[in-house]
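pasting RidA family protein for the record, 128 residues
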Amino acid sequence: MANEILAKGIAPLEVPLTHVVRAGDMVYMSGQIAVRADGTMVKGDFKEETRAVLGNIKAGVEAAGGTLDDVVKTTVFLLNATLFAPMNEVYREYFTKPFPARSTIVAPLSDPDLRIEIEAVAYIPEHS
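structre below
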């Protein structure tokens, strides 16, 4: 059975999704975008957009009782391949070895202002 985890640090969105879902010891995070907890979108500075996205991932994992060290897989969606290097630079600020397994996909995103979206899976035992 899956249960929603409410993460106060992530702004609610007007789309049919749950930001963080626990299924047993696994925690799944929907794709996070560069929106601050107050609902404002981060625009212009791609590294700051990436920090906002990863900050949302961190908030979701912490709401589930874990840390970024518990993230085992991420999927990164980038608007274009030129963003790969700056994304990696910021990604290293949040994750250390052993890094989560990761896929990176270049694709158009749901809003013309979006350049990055990241979803994550974490292993956080329920009774740790």
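Residues 46-63 form the longest helix (18 residues).
The beta strands are 2-4, 20-23, 26-32, 71-78, 101-106, 116-123.
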